[in-house]
Amino acid sequence: MARISNGVFTFINSLILILGLVSIAASAYLMMHHSSSLCQKALQLPLFILGVSLFVVSLLGLMGSLCEKTFWIKIHSCFNFLLIVGLICFTVFAFIVTNKGAGKALSRIGYREYRLGDYSNWLKNHFVNQNNWDEIRSCLMDAHVCQSLDIHSDVNQQVADFYKTKLSPVQSGCCKPPADCGFEYKNATFWIVPESGPAVQDSDCTTWNNNQNKHCYDCNSCKAGFLANIKKEWRILAIVLIFITVFLIILYSLGCCAIRSIHQSHSKYSKFGP
């Protein structure tokens, strides 16, 4: 039974080691891939910290199980316990800060519209503040999120057809004016302001520009669409972390069993030794 538990302990540590390396590689990709790194900073740091933590914990566990040294397994168990506590805290935090914010569904429209005020202050202060928005805006422009919308639209497309289009949160917030502005549709990225002006007093309505390098990239709706993406990514990450935490708890229990089995093994050899 002791051999089986030690074998399972080694196997799970090997899986977590691979997972840690994958996480580090994903973070490195986001860091080196210019067009992605600027837009994916919300995932880059958490993935790197998670990857390094999993790598260190699993490496300590493998050293202890393969060398049958309780010292390394005890160190592994301490690090593992701290990692479990950290993951639980971060997962709870991720769910709290992404709890607010949801796209507004509009009647007879296939996409949602997003409002910056619907999201938590923490997300707004850390991701779409004035210090980093210029960088994020450049990233979105480099990714051609609005040009791709224009390419996929038919020249003869009517406004009713456009309203049925499935837009991503970023496209909805950055590539068109808010529906409340009451602008006249010409094509997916070209809208005409009525002579009487916008239908509502909204800064996004005056910020909108038909220039493809401007559009609504400085609108609050664009920032809200970007936060909607972050919310989705963090929710997915939080769910993945729940499964990883369960594996780490199992690993922690197996580590305790491995320490006992090594002690029993050493006691047996001492008993029957010369």
Key phrases:
disordered C terminus; two-stranded antiparallel sheet; 274 residues
What can you tell me about this protein's structure?
The chain has 274 residues and is mostly helical. 68% of the residues lie in helices and 4% in strands. It has helices at 2-32, 34-37, 41-67, 70-97, 121-127, 130-142, 145-151, 159-163, 169-174, 203-207, 220-272; strands spanning 104-105, 112-113, 184-187, 190-192. Strands 1-2 form a two-stranded antiparallel sheet. Strands 3-4 form a two-stranded antiparallel ribbon. A hairpin with a 6-residue loop joins strand 1 (104-105) and strand 2 (112-113). Helix 3 (41-67) runs parallel beside helix 11 (220-272). It is elongated. The chain starts with a helix and ends with a helix.
Q: What topology emerges from the helices and strands here?
A:
Layout: H1 2-32, H2 34-37, H3 41-67, H4 70-97, E1 104-105, E2 112-113, H5 121-127, H6 130-142, H7 145-151, H8 159-163, H9 169-174, E3 184-187, E4 190-192, H10 203-207, H11 220-272
Antiparallel strand pairs: 1-2, 3-4
